[in-house]
Specification:
Two copies of one chain form a homodimer. With 262 residues, chain A is α/β, with parallel strands linked by helices. The first copy, chain A, has helices at 19-26, 35-41, 58-70, 89-100, 126-134, 154-167, 184-193, and strands spanning 3-8, 30-32, 49-51, 74-79, 117-121, 135-136, 142-146, 170-174, 201-206, 214-219, 232-236, 242-246, 249-253. Chain A is globular. Chains A and B meet through α1, α3, α4, β5 and α5 of A and α1, α3, α4, β5 and α5 of B.
């Protein structure tokens, strides 16, 4: 059996792990994932062979998962969140595409990849965990933009931020900062400030649904990269998003306009 | 106990229902949902009081859920997909906002809504189910646009489609057609054709993960509203999305560009 599950495990708390993802991992002999993700899964990973590669070795991890599955194993390639959103799934298909085109894949066994039965299992992404924690920030049209310019030219990213501003989408920024990237988020904020009020609500969600979860609701003008790290999701409201306070509870939501009908 | 769970149950197959959602429903005495969603949940709903209102009565359903919870019950308000994405969650907060502002809510008991403990439970949305079924269509920046102009002026929707085209986002269209709305999707297609090639891949996913699931991969120029109904998600690739064929398997993915590093 040559089987590769590509599995998203949700934001962190196992209460958001779909049964399909749980069963895919349980059916696998080998798990390929960044160590932190496996730590979050705990017991579920017991008795499996773990294959870890350092952060930054994403393409190597996808190649290893394909090679292991091609050798006849049942393998789960795992990311937190939705593995189809800014995560490992697309790398597997990039590699498969190279092999189908007869290009160099970096593996001597890549001809066998074409026999692997691949199944992608989606998970709940950080933007969804964040939006639900504060109410319904994704209640109307939204977009996601990765601020990592390691693989995408900054010019392309900047164009997308302008488009998001023009279209008045709720914007979720993935990969907002890293140790080496500290200026992109503030530039993105300044671009959005050209299109929407300084006072619109912004969600800064760190380690969402995990034990050290921290959620801050602020405004666009106060968004600052110094308050954000690699474990943080930033979602910026549209011009219609609202921040409401009910006693000790705060909510942020983006209306669809139903209440106008009342 | 005045408790309102606002629960997304995922695309349909219970294998994608998060334990958190399952437990929220189990803990409730009363369920408020469109009947079809409860049918999908089957056994899980047994022994609960069901409250149904016809499609189109969304605001009434949210009001009913708040009223029931305010009367001391534990209630689940349920949608399929992610209830925070084009679904019921935002209506609850629209109503709460009206009450906080002292405006008319349509309920004589709405002052008690402010005491309800509200918890939103996200689910896997149709775009994620669709993308995972065909590979990794959401692998890079994407947006979602609802084509329903019942509450949002068509001018606003059209502006967003142009922005999505300019930004070269993967675009998922929710509410692409209905019995009364048949021209919006083809207009949206024609707008996107101004910005990206006619040959880019498009996913038409009907009843995703359900027993009568039907998935078609086509190209942007061949997208036609006559092939789409209310149970369908349409996701249009960016100019970088690729459609690859490996024997009897077809995949669509949007690269992040890792393979360029090889």
């Amino acid at each position: 059996m040559s089987k590769l599950f590509i599995v998203g495990t949700g934001p962190g708390d196992l209460e958001y792990l779909a049964p399909k993802a749980q069963k895919s991992i349980a059916a696998s002999s080998d798990l390929v994932a960044y160590g932190l993700y496996l730590d979050l899964l705990g017991e579920l990973c017991k008795g499996k062979v773990h294959h870890d590669l350092p952060l930054g070795e994403e393409i190597g991890r996808a190649r290893l998962a394909l090679d292991l599955a091609a050798s006849g194993k049942t393998v789960s390639l795992i990311s937190s969140g939705d593995i189809g959103i800014y995560a490992m799934a697309t790398l597997v298909f990039e590699l498969l595409d190279l092999e189908l085109q007869g290009k160099e894949t970096g593996s001597v066994n890549s001809n066998k990849w074409l026999d692997v039965d691949i199944e992608v299992v989606p998970g709940i992404s950080a933007m969804q965990a964040g939006a639900s924690r504060v109410g319904a920030l994704l209640g109307h049209d939204f977009c996601t933009i990765s601020l990592s310019d390691l693989l995408t030219p900054w010019q392309t990213i900047e164009k997308r931020i302008h488009s998001a501003g023009q279209g008045d989408f709720v914007v979720s920024f993935y990969n907002p900062v890293s140790k080496k990237r500290d200026w992109q988020l503030n530039t993105a904020r300044d671009i959005l400030l050209e299109y929407r009020p300084a006072s619109i609500p912004v969600l800064i969600g760190r380690q969402l649904t995990r034990v050290d979860e921290n959620i801050v609701i602020t405004t666009l003008d106060k968004l600052d990269a110094k308050d954000v790290d690699m474990f943080t999701l930033v979602s910026v409201g549209s011009s219609e998003s609202r921040h409401i306070i009910n006693g000790s509870k705060e909510w942020v939501y983006t209306p669809r306009g139903y209440s106008k009908k009342l």
